[in-house]
Amino acid sequence: MPVVWSERHRGHATDGGYWLGVRLPGDEEPERGDALRDALLAAGANVTEPNDHGDAPVLAVHRPEFVDFLARVHDDWRAAGYATDPGQPLVVPYVFALAQLTSGRPPRRAASVHADVGRFAMDTMTLIGPGTYDAARAAVDCALTAADLVLDGARGAYAAVRPPGHHVGADFYGGSCYLNNAACAAQYLRDRGVDRVAVIDVDAHHGNGTQEIFYDRADVLYGSAHVDPGAGWFPHFVGFADERGANAGEGANRNLPLAPGTGDAEWLAAIDTLATEAVAHGADALVVSLGVDAATEDPESPLAISAAGFAAAGARLAAADLPTVFVQEGGYHPGTFGGLVLSFLGGFEDGA
Questions:
Q1: pLDDT under 50 in the chain at which residues?
Q2: Is residue 62 annotated as a catalytic residue, yes or no?
Q3: Domains of the chain, first to last
Q4: Listed residue (91, 74, 62) closest to 130, CA to CA
Q5: Tell me: the pLDDT tens digits for 283-332?
């Protein structure tokens, strides 16, 4: 299976974020991307750099004002002098432009950049540094290059990206994500003639951003098996079973929330359901948001999935017999991260 990876991921290095007002070290750091590459190379993977796809595929998913914000915000922050007063070199919000503030009307752009961040940020954990936007754009290009490989006839292709993306909507970011790599890949497939696409998200946490991007559409099915947000897990406010899509997209959104501690059997049953529904949807291609943070060993894990479980999940998605783009999402245990990804991809190849 071809693998796409970019060394530009190293530009995103914020060393954590703020949780409950406390600065905590992060686990979505450059070492994670390099460890993944090393595991892939050790397994004999053919790892290549992505091609530059320009702005159009990003703007096909994200609103222009949001993309412009991400591209300029760190420069604006630095120019405003916040690195020295109050001593914060990274972009972090302190107020949020909730829809309730304007009865749902679009909020105005704030005069101060430290306030304007609140138009787009959904949490305080997801900081922006000087190389964050470039790394996020490189991740999108990896996903799009993997999509190109599938369009050119590959049975599957893997985008080994960081930062991840499935928590990003059309004009908001958070959850350690900045641009939605999987959504960009799905839309790119559509724009290049694939009639119907299914996005299956196996990350431990619901991909709220991907859901919202496609919520009103029938041409892209979004399906996710994740820990129940009602049990207190991120993203907390969305990811429930009764969220089924709206308008033309009614029935094209499928959430399968799982109880904390769920193991292989129930999780694999959920994966089977999503694969079956992708085929029933008439999907011509599949995009997999490949998070492995459901693993028992993962520090972020609310679930208890084994390496064998990930291999079985890959095989079951292969049974859908669809051209498949894999896009990396979560997975934060240094000792097992690469091996679990290889288990999943190996299971897919065996199944295919």
A1: none
A2: no
A3: 3-61+129-351 (3.40.800.20), 65-119 (no CATH)
A4: 74
A5: 999 999 999 999 999 988 899 999 999 999 999 999 999 999 999 999 99
Q: What is the pLDDT of residue 300?
A: 86
Q: Which of 106, 291, 98 is nearest to 200 (CA)?
A: 291
Catalytic residue among 53, 62, 167, 206: 167
The pLDDT value given to residue 71: 98
Q: Which 3-state string (H, E, C) describes the chain?
A: CCEECCHHHHHCCCCCEEECCEEECCCCCHHHHHHHHHHHHHCCCCEECCCCCCCHHHHCCCCHHHHHHHHHHHHHHHHCCCCCCCCCCCECCCCCCCHHHHCCCCCCCCCCHHHHHHHCECCCCCCECCCHHHHHHHHHHHHHHHHHHHHCCCCEEEECCCCCCCCCCCCCEECCECCCHHHHHHHHHHHCCCCCEEEEECCCCCCHHHHHHHCCCCCEEEEEEEECHHHCCCCCCCCCCCCCCCHHHCCCEEEEEECCCCCHHHHHHHHHHHHHHHHHCCCCEEEEEECCCCECCCCCCCCCECHHHHHHHHHHHHCCCCCEEEEECCCCCCCCHHHHHHHHHHHHHHHC
Q: pLDDT tens across 152-183, in order?
A: 999 999 999 999 999 999 999 999 999 999 99
- The widest CA-to-CA distance across the chain, in whole angstroms, is 57
